[in-house]
Specification:
mainly alpha, 4 strands, two-stranded antiparallel ribbon
Length: 317
């Protein structure tokens, strides 16, 4: 891709995310909290991460102090999160990146205890099945916390899930706690649009991280297998609200390989975010409820997928 054109698209992406963060900040309460009448009580897990990416550290710290004082429980769980492993991983990463160890360590101490014998993580602590998304995000959280034993078990679980796939046209993303792939449940079907692309995206992202750490080519090989699968998916694979995780994974993979398919995927999602942002700064799509939660949640997580993708790609331009 032409460098000048990429720079123009990246600048549009940065402006969209600045607007998305400003939109989120408009709902922070004077005490730092992020719960108000009519808004669910477990939807502040991405905000500290999102805000810090554009330098809004003060409101992020204020939110985290509110979390510590009002929602962090003695066992490391957050009040009203009901054992949601995925959301705990998000807030752990956001807090840790801001050196808020008063939050990241207790949350992580609870989180790591939810790992199943197969090395995977369930979405909810009470669930009987593990899934790719939570396992990979838990593994990346473990890496950030310096817990490579837990991270290694996560990556091996994701690899096992990949190796057990029975059908090249589908990706099954749930497994039993003892490590058997569930092939009669949810999956990504390459013949259909609006699929759970994040399940593969998070898994590819974990392989990228392990290659960064180990320089072991096998992890790059697994990342390529995930990218190859993405390249067989429907036409919205890089233009759906669930495409951002894979976009960042592709951006990082591109820095290792200069694979143009990965660059096209990452940039395609950035363009999608720019083109679909609402005037308010948030995002909501036709297959979702038209509620504030959706607008804010996308505004938060798109921040990372867009800004970090841009930074990775620019580092090798």
């Amino acid at each position: 891709m032409e460098k000048k054109l990429l720079e123009k698209r990246f600048e549009a992406g940065r402006k969209a995310i600045r607007k998305a963060v400003d939109f989120q900040l408009g709902y922070q309460l004077p005490d730092g909290g992020y719960i108000w009448e009519g808004y669910v009580k477990d939807a502040y897990h991405k905000q500290a991460y999102s805000w810090s990416l554009v330098g809004e550290r003060d409101p992020a710290h204020k939110l985290l102090s509110w979390v510590r004082e009002t929602t962090l429980q003695s066992d490391g769980q957050l009040k009203d999160y009901n054992g949601d492993v995925y959301k705990h991983a998000w807030i752990c990463q956001g807090a840790h990146s801001l050196s808020r160890f008063d939050i990241s360590y207790p949350v992580y101490n609870w989180l790591r205890k939810q790992q199943a014998p197969c090395g995977g993580f369930p979405l909810l602590a009470s669930d009987e099945l593990c899934r790719a998304m939570t396992t990979a995000w838990g593994g990346i959280t473990a890496i950030m916390m310096g817990d490579m034993d837990t991270a290694n078990r996560c990556v091996e679980s994701c690899i096992s899930m990949l190796e057990q796939q029975p059908d090249k046209s589908k990706f099954f993303f749930q497994m039993t706690r003892d490590g058997k792939l569930v092939t009669d449940g949810e999956c990504i079907d390459i013949t259909k649009i609006k699929q759970c692309y994040w399940e593969v995206g998070f898994s590819m992202l974990l392989m990228d991280r392990f290659y960064q750490i180990t320089k072991d080519e096998k992890y790059l090989g697994y990342a390529k297998r995930y990218l190859d699968f993405f390249c067989t998916c429907a036409e919205d694979v890089w233009s759906y609200w669930g495409s951002g995780k894979g976009a960042l994974a592709c951006a990082i993979y591109y820095t290792f390989t200069k694979d143009e398919r990965a660059l096209e995927g990452a940039v395609g999602f950035i363009d999608f975010v720019v083109e679909t942002q609402r005037e308010c700064g948030g995002f909501q799509y036709e297959d979702e409820d038209d509620i504030l939660l959706i607008y804010i949640d996308h505004a938060a997580c798109f921040s990372g997928w867009v800004l970090e993708s841009i930074s990775y790609i620019e580092s090798v331009m």
